[in-house]
Amino acid sequence: DNDPVASGFVASLAQPGGNITGLSTFAPELSGKRLELLKEIIPRLSRVAVFGTSTQPGSAQMLKEVELVAKAFGVKLQYLDVLDPKDIETAFRAATKGRAEAVLFLVAGAVTGSHRTEIVELAVKSRLPVIYPQSNYVEAGGLMTYGVNQTDLDRRAATYVDKILKGRTPRDLPVEQPMKFEFIINLKAAKAIGLTIPPNVLVRATKVIR
Fold first, then answer.
1. Residues 177-188: pLDDT tens digits?
2. Rounded CA separation 121/130 (Å)
3. Which tens digits make up the pLDDT trace of 103-152?
4. Under DSSP, is residue 145 helix (H, G, I), strand (E, B) or coil?
5. Around 192, how many Cα atoms within 13 Å sit in the side-chain half-sphere?
6. Sheet with strand 102-106: strands edge to edge
7. Is the pLDDT reported for residue 16 higher than 80?
8. pLDDT for the residue numbered 153
9. Which pLDDT does position 187 carry in this prediction?
10. What does residue 93 show for φ and ψ, rounded to 5 degrees?
11. Taking all residues of the chain, what is their mean pLDDT, rounded to a whole number?
């Protein structure tokens, strides 16, 4: 979950207290970090469109983190609500009209589903740098992603299943936070929109697609 405490699923990370436990994806905090990365790549960045899904659990917390970072960097935000796949193209048009210089993509996976290729193509067509929450967008041709290493998270989740099957109760198992993160940059996508990635950012990438 994005934020299991704020969502009301557990009392605290250390002591869940109910019949739910697992791993947190740290989404609210990472949303702010993604905006920081956009600012590093585009130092003169002043306007960012935030594509989000207001009905997504944790959406308010994610936006709050983004607003804190935006205020610190003097970046103006344009929030665009994407509740349905048909809203994606409309959001890109609105971002262009609003003179956005980049997009922070926080749309719920349930909305985007099988539309990743379409989203990536719209980003190129709009000539907008977009940072995504998961690596599958970059694998589909997107510019970059910063987030939790999902493979590591899935592997660790299996240990929870094992413990519960052996008799442990969820209330006794603390909710763990992610330990491994991935920062992937697609240089082909950068070239397609005429964007140069600064060397100091490039060297921090865990993977570079050339």
1. 666 889 999 999
2. 11
3. 999 999 899 988 999 999 999 999 999 999 989 999 999 999 998 876 65
4. strand
5. 19
6. 76-81, 47-52, 102-106, 130-132, 144-148, 181-186, 207-209
7. no
8. 61
9. 98
10. -65, -45
11. 85
Structural tokens at position 110 = 């349930």
pTM: 0.80
Write phi, then psi, for 163 (nearest 5 degrees). -65, -40
The packing angle between helices 87-97 and 116-126, to 10°, is 20
Residue 137, amino acid = Y
Amino acid occupying residue 148: V
Residues 6+ apart with CB under 8 A from 178: 23, 24, 25, 26, 148, 149, 152, 153
Taken as a whole, the chain contains a residue count of 210
DSSP strand pairing (181-186 vs 144-148): antiparallel
Q: Give the whole-angstrom CA distance, residue 132 versus residue 117.
A: 13
The token pair that represents 185 in the structure block: 């940059």
Cα torsion for 96, 126, 130, 196, to the nearest 10°? -110
Question: Cα(120)–Cα(118) distance, rounded to whole angstroms?
Answer: 6
Q: Would you state the structure tokens that stand for residue 205, as one six-digit string?
A: 């990438």
Of 19, 53, 13, which Cα lies nearest the Cα of 133?
Answer: 53
